[in-house]
Amino acid sequence: MIDRYLLRYLLAVVDRGSFTRAAAHCGVSQPTLSVGIAKLEAEVGTALLLRTNRRIELTGAGVRWVERARRIEREFTLGEQEATATERAATLRLGILSSLPARWIEQALGAAHRTAGSHRIEVVEGPEKTLLAALDRGRLDVLLGIVRPHRARFCEPVFTEGYALVLPPGHPLAGRAAIEAHEVAEGPMIVRRHCEALTETSRHFTALGVRPFMSARVDADAQALALVRAGHGLTVMPEGFRGEHVAMARLAGFDLRRTIGLVHDRIPAERVRSDALEAIRATIELCHEEQRPPAPPSGQ
Predict the structure, then answer these.
(1) Do the beta carbons of residue 131 and residue 100 sit within 8 Å?
(2) For the segment 222-250, what is each residue's pLDDT rounded down to a tens digit?
(3) Which of 48, 66, 239, 270 has the maximum number of C-beta atoms within 10 A of its C-beta?
(4) Gap between the Cα atoms of 146 and 179, Å rounded
(5) Which of 98, 295, 70, 300 is nearest to 194 (CA)?
(6) C-alpha distance from residue 96 to each of 40, 126, 128, 143, 235 (Å)
(7) What is the pLDDT of residues 118-158, one digit of tens each?
């Protein structure tokens, strides 16, 4: 049985024109390559190369074996490409926006794994810009994140929600439907640095002349919620975090909303249907419905 690497040595010598350059191309020493060529000639039972001080020429058998070697390499390459494509098709590479509730993701992935069968799911969590860059570079198949107008034809919206002021349950303002920015001007605030609405939130307070004391800067929502519950400060979060043993109230005048959906690397209709992805979409939609804020009381 002829080893594939011996055929690659032969092609490298022919294509590079010398044993020295062929060895460098194959990542081996020149003596190793020479031994390999000699082994190949011994296995096929005839000389394949005529070596002189000036050049290297193919024998008649060498010409025939080079043609065979190229066909074999071409078939190997095609086979490897097919295997890679099959593996990729069986793996869902999913980006998840870091400002989505962890309990939603837990339920969504649980549902996906119950329907995925032999398919694998690779999850990458991160902020919006990082995930979009990975999607554009072909490192993700789809992301669960914010639907932006310029990507609308690549998106499947799931739900839309607003942002709210998050307070400890025992805070004096807890229970209010809406709170003015100036009412929390003297209190500490927690900065969620990973939030896509951070710039708009800061701009809202600044425009009203409110500059709260920043008591903490965190990169994870679990940390932000823990600090709020501990009474360390307030923060602004998407409404989906309602139910995390905190109080929520609308921040008066702050009407920013976000649409969450599946952002694909191509038009959704061109993608192969994925039961796992459908389970994720349906579960996230259900989670949102269960956590929708109650309608404000009449007159508020």
Answers:
(1) no
(2) 999 999 999 999 999 999 999 889 999 99
(3) 48
(4) 26
(5) 98
(6) 52, 7, 9, 6, 22
(7) 678 999 999 999 999 998 888 898 999 999 998 888 899 99
| Beta-bridge partner residues of 97 | 126
For the chain, where are the E strands, in sequence order? 49-51, 56-58, 91-97, 120-126, 142-146, 155-167, 178-179, 188-192, 213-218, 235-238, 247-251, 257-264
Burial environment of residue 232 by CB neighbours within 10 A (0 to 12, 13 to 18, 19 or more): middle
Torsion of Cα atoms, 249 then 251 then 255 then 258, to 10°: -60
Q: Which CATH number fits domain 4-88: 1.10.3470.10, 3.40.720.10, 1.10.510.10, 1.10.10.10?
A: 1.10.10.10
Q: What CATH fold (topology level) applies to the domain 99-158+260-290?
A: D-Maltodextrin-Binding Protein; domain 2 (3.40.190)
pLDDT in tens, 181-224: 999 998 899 999 999 999 999 999 999 999 999 999 999 999 99
160-257: which CATH topology? Answer: D-Maltodextrin-Binding Protein; domain 2 (3.40.190)
Does this model's pTM top 0.70? My answer is no
Q: How confident is the model at residue 88 (pLDDT cuts 50, 70, 90)?
A: low
Q: Where in the chain is the domain with CATH 3.40.190.10?
A: 160-257
